[in-house]
Write a structure and sequence with these properties.
alpha/beta; Rossmann fold; ten-stranded mixed beta sheet; six-stranded parallel beta sheet; 19% strand; globular
Length: 454
């Protein structure tokens, strides 16, 4: 059996201190354990060490390297999070184009290839993850590697007219043709990639996802990531989740809970969500004191100005909403800037009457799937989901909304809160079955089968 070599910006391989892992780490570590593979990535630390540090725990080997401060600033804070992230999420106005950022991005990918290439054996399957590492396959090929190389993009692929705003955009896309298989979360992102290749590169789209540009043919597929469904469902009814559920029921005091859980990021549509909830409160005065929104939003990327800006805006908005509508014994919006374990979140999801998942643009959004997985089959909550989340392609029984419209969000909240039990069950069942069927292990197997096929 070929080893699986996973390469990503950060490593999530298990350690004694790692605690509960996300679904991606669970699936990849299982695949790495079964093949004797290695997970390479940045340690998250600043330093000058270029030699990888290997560690093995629970049958999984990880290898990490440090990055110099300049590389962190230019590659990670710069090109990855101030150029590619906003551009790929359709936020051209927030995108920063700096030549130093681009140089740092290529330099770090080259260093990764120099460090990793000597440890790759001829029969290894190599799977590179996400926008931080787009050129890595090209640099690995420069080391003479002929292995099967795969790349998966976890975020959206932008429309051609938007991507062409990126200096050296063609160079970036040409780097993807060093891989054998390129995966996208949804059919929409795959089709936008096809459009760029045809329009800008004169490529040809063949059968079974084959794309040819010049003399190079690769396969591109839509392969939506899932959650670790069975484990998450089991944990949702375990002791920690049950404790969180009981705590939320007691805290709600008979009120209906609407829950949102998002990393504090402008792509998540939190400003628009607060506006929609405010519109609901304005137009449904009879619901006051009977409902509240719990928005959990742990901060991220605090070194990037746009993330500091969104936090300041949301702090102000939550204060205004509570100031305008709160009563002496009721606060309409609980806004929490910290993260919680997934098992605890599962209990919170199960206690909620409504899950509010309204990103402006999202590659997939696993919170939507976790919300569905956590529900009580006899009394499920209702998912309100942005049409611009990748998950909307699979979870079509959710109430689908335009997150830019406060009226649509307000109407969806009202509809969800008044929905009959029969309709809630009818909507929940097919979504739940799809989440269990197409879980994260299905996703891993589908991509790895495509990568292993000649």
């Amino acid at each position: 059996m070929s080893r699986l070599i996973v390469i990503s910006n950060r490593v999530q391989a298990p350690t004694e201190e790692s605690g509960a892992q996300g679904g991606l780490a669970v699936a990849l570590t299982a695949a790495l354990r079964s093949t004797g593979g290695v997970w390479f990535g940045w340690s998250g630390e600043v330093g000058e060490t270029t030699e990888p540090r290997f560690a093995t725990y629970d049958g999984v080997t990880s290898a990490t390297v440090d990055l110099p401060e300049q590389d962190v600033e230019e590659y990670y804070d710069g090109y990855a999070n101030r150029t590619l992230w906003p551009l790929f999420h359709y936020r051209l106005g927030l995108t920063e184009f700096e030549r130093d950022f681009e140089g740092g991005y290529e330099r770090v990918n080259r260093v990764f290839s120099d460090v990793i290439a000597p440890h790759i054996q001829p029969q290894d399957l190599v799977w590179v993850h996400d926008y931080h590492m787009i050129p890595l396959g090209w640099f690995l090929r420069q080391h003479g590697l002929t292995n099967r190389l795969g790349f998966f993009l976890h975020i959206p692929w932008p429309p051609t007219r938007l991507l062409t705003a990126l200096p050296q955009h063609r160079r970036l896309v040409e780097a993807l043709f060093a891989y054998d298989v390129v995966g996208f979360q949804t059919q929409e992102w795959l089709e936008t990639f096809h459009d760029y290749v045809v329009r800008e590169m004169g490529g040809c789209i063949g059968e079974d996802g084959e794309i040819t540009v010049g003399g190079r043919t690769i396969r591109a597929i839509a392969c939506p990531i899932g959650i670790d469904a069975q484990e998450f469902i089991a944990n949702a009814f375990g002791p920690e989740a049950s404790s969180a559920f009981d705590r939320m029921v007691t805290s709600s005091a008979g009120r209906s809970l609407i829950v949102g859980v998002d990393r504090l990021d402008y792509s998540k549509g939190l400003e628009e969500r607060f506006n929609g909830y405010q519109r609901y409160l304005e137009t449904h005065a009879n619901a006051h004191s009977n409902v509240y929104l719990l928005q959990i939003a742990p901060p991220s990327r605090a070194s990037v100005q746009s993330y500091r800006d969104i936090r300041e805006k949301l702090d102000a908005m939550s204060g205004r909403i509570n100031g305008a509508f709160a009563d002496v014994d009721w606060v309409p919006l609980r806004y929490v800037n910290q993260g919680f374990p997934r098992t605890m979140l599962a209990g919170i999801y199960r206690a909620a009457r409504v899950g509010l998942v309204t990103p402006l643009r999202d590659g997939m959004n696993l919170v939507a799937k976790e919300f569905i997985a956590a529900q009580d089959p006899e009394d499920p909550g209702v998912l309100i989901l942005s049409r611009f989340a990748g998950a909307a392609e699979q979870l079509q029984e959710a109430i689908i909304v335009n997150p830019y419209s406060p009226d649509e969000i307000a109407d969806a909240i009202a509809r969800a809160l008044s929905m009959s039990l029969d309709e809630r069950k009818a909507r929940w069942n097919p979504m739940f079955e799809g989440i269990v069927r197409n879980d994260v292990n299905w996703w891993t197997d589908k991509f790895c089968d495509a990568l292993a096929a000649d």
